[in-house]
């Protein structure tokens, strides 16, 4: 690969992926990051990378739904791979306002597929990798795991929009022969995650002595994967995956939400003991746990069978939850400036200065 288009590279997983590409994968080419910079996109995530990889890293502020822009970028940069992260990604937001999810996740994916189809007619030496989620498979009972062959059963506007995109990607393979791969991954956590998702929200609230909201009975189960392991899996699929294939990615780490929240509290007790944190005012972190009204249509359990990726491409997670959560909590403790900017929207001013 000489020229890669990454979409949504200013978000959580995309920025970790770009870091992985430049620092760990041995990639020597050029990488273009196309991102609209919604509330979730933050170019500050990659400011050091932009400096270190000047000339090889290009940032383009733009919307993946813009057909003409996508076409122009394919022409100008002659991409031989696309890694498509850009999406509206938060289930709760999709419940309150599904429109942006349909636009970006479905129409945006369609626009990129069209640009790729037109630029790559007849080519086999290229790849369109679509980053998707395990949520397309629906919700599990107490037993079993999602396999690549599990029928789709999305149940939130978010998962329905991602499922639609997955179907479009497969249709472009089947109908036009576009060399695509898809990965369906479980819940990620790690540095640079926007504090609306469970783990960073709980870390920040706990640091500040605020309530830690746990939906319903706290017994919903998710399968957690450290973000760097997800990035390594995507890179492996890009390099070695077979066109037309789907690969499940997971952490082999099923946990009830309440246990995840307790693990965050334990990590904080280790790194910033509650008696030393004035925001706690004599309480400990676990005292902040507050059960709140459940999410409508809350999926009960996700669990991923990633044996295909392990068997065929030799990938497995390298970071266990105990280690990953310590690294994650430490990162948020070490980066108060990032937290302040993300929360106050100050990075938008920085953005204006640098990108307008
Ligand atoms: P994120 O919300 O942190 O980042 C999304 C990025 O996409 C942001 O930088 C945003 O500015 C950009 N974006 C949004 N709309 C855009 C548009 N119309 N045009 C261009 N850019 C746009 O999301 P994330 O958590 O990093 O997730 C990335 C991808 O991985 C998504 O496709 C998501 O469905 C998938 N995924 C996420 C998880 C998870 O646990 N976070 C798990 C599995 C799969
Ligand atoms: P989230 O991080 O939003 O990811 P997803 O909905 O894609 O799995 O939520 C993870 C789990 O945590 C999910 O079961 C909902 C629950 N949750 C809470 O209990 N409290 C919260 O404040 C949030 C944001 C999520």
Task: Describe it.
With 356 residues, the protein is α/β, with parallel strands linked by helices. The protein has a domain at 3-192 and 224-252 and 301-319: NAD(P)-binding Rossmann-like Domain (Rossmann fold). It has 13 helices and twelve strands. It has helices at 12-23, 47-52, 67-77, 91-96, 99-119, 157-176, 198-207, 227-240, 257-271, 307-313, 321-334, 336-344, 346-355, and strands at residues 3-7, 30-35, 57-61, 81-84, 127-133, 180-185, 187-189, 212-215, 221-226, 246-249, 254-256, 289-292. The strands form three sheets. A seven-stranded parallel sheet has the order 3-2-1-4-5-6-10, with helices on both faces. A three-stranded mixed sheet has the order 7-9-11. Helix 6 (157-176) links the parallel strand 5 (127-133) and strand 6 (180-185). Helix 1 (12-23) crosses helix 8 (227-240) and helix 5 runs parallel beside helix 6 (157-176). The longest helix has 21 residues, at 99-119. The model has no long low-confidence stretch (mean pLDDT 96). Residues 91, 187, 197-198, 201, 213-215, 220, 222, 257, 295 line the site of thymidine-5'-diphosphate.
Which radius of gyration do the C-alpha atoms yield? 20 Å
Secondary-structure arrangement, i.e. CATH architecture of the domain at 3-192 and 224-252 and 301-319: 3-Layer(aba) Sandwich
Strand content: 15-25%
In CATH terms, the superfamily of the domain at 3-192 and 224-252 and 301-319 is NAD(P)-binding Rossmann-like Domain
Strand sequence of the main sheet, in spatial order? Answer: 3-2-1-4-5-6-10
Helix content bin: 40-55%
Which structural class do you get from the secondary structure elements? alpha/beta
Q: What is the terminal-to-terminal distance?
A: 30 Å
């Amino acid at each position: 690969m000489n020229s890669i288009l990454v979409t949504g590279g200013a978000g959580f997983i995309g920025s970790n992926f770009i870091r992985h590409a430049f620092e760990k994968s041995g990639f020597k080419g050029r990488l273009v990051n196309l991102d609209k910079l919604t509330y979730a996109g933050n170019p500050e995530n990659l400011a050091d990378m932009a400096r270190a990889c000047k000339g090889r890293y290009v940032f383009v502020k733009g919307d993946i739904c813009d057909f003409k822009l996508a076409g122009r970028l394919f022409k100008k940069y002659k991409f031989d791979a696309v890694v498509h992260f850009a999406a509206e990604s938060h289930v709760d937001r999709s419940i309150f306002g599904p429109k942006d999810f349909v636009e970006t996740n479905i129409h945006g994916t369609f626009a990129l597929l069209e640009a790729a189809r037109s630029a790559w007619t007849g080519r086999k030496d290229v790849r369109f990798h679509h980053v998707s989620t395990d949520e397309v498979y629906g919700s599990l009972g107490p037993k079993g795991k999602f396999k690549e062959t599990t029928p789709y059963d999305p149940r939130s506007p978010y998962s329905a929009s991602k499922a639609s995109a997955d179907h479009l990607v497969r249709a472009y393979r089947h109908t036009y022969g576009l060399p695509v791969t898809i990965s369906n991954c479980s819940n990620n956590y790690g540095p640079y995650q926007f504090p609306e998702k469970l783990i960073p929200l709980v870390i920040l609230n706990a640091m500040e002595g605020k309530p830690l909201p746990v939906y319903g009975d706290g017994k919903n189960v998710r399968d957690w994967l450290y973000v760097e392991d997800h990035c390594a899996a995507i890179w492996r699929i890009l390099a070695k995956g077979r066109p037309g294939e789907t690969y499940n990615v997971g952490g082999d780490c099923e946990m009830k939400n309440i246990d995840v929240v307790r693990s965050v509290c334990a990590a904080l007790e280790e790194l910033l003991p509650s008696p030393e944190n004035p925001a706690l005012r004599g309480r400990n972190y676990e005292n902040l746990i507050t059960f709140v009204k459940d999410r409508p249509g809350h999926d009960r359990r996700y669990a991923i069978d990633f044996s295909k990726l392990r068997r065929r491409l030799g990938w497995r997670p390298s970071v266990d939850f105990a280690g990953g959560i310590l690294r994650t909590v430490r990162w948020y403790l070490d980066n108060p400036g990032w937290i302040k900017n993300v929360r106050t929207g100050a990075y938008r001013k920085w953005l204006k200065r640098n990108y307008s």
